[in-house]
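Friendly challenge for the regulars: who can give me the structure tokens for this chain first? No prize, just bragging rights.
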Amino acid sequence: MTDSITAMSISDIAERTGLSTHTLRYYEREGLMLSPVERASSSHRRYSEADLTWVLFLTKLRSTAMPIAVMRRYVELARLGESTTAERLELLLLHRGAVARQLEEMTASLAAIDYKIGLYEDTVSARLSPR
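First reply, four minutes later:
Bragging rights claimed.
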């Protein structure tokens, strides 16, 4: 049971994670929470520190474009415990490879943008320089 001192509302979690309350409810509906979120007697959600830590991890997965279906699979495996460690490792290694490829593409794109900026800066400087 969540300790009432550390229990946080959905708006508290939204503020601490930068997610909207709508997204938090969506994550819950999609089965992405590691364990069910507790409810107060008023039926309001009460999040624990462990829930907060888990949501922060989910935000990292989403910010690296992990599909919801893959996130759901990861959560399913995590719920099964240590016997699925190898499968979770494989899932994360595959995702890491995809993220590394994205970073390489973004780095190359950034270099192309920087090159073009340099050309424009040279052109602008040449126009502004006295002859």
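Strands lie at 38-39, 45-46. The helical segments are 10-17, 21-29, 49-63, 68-80, 85-128. Your move, everyone else.
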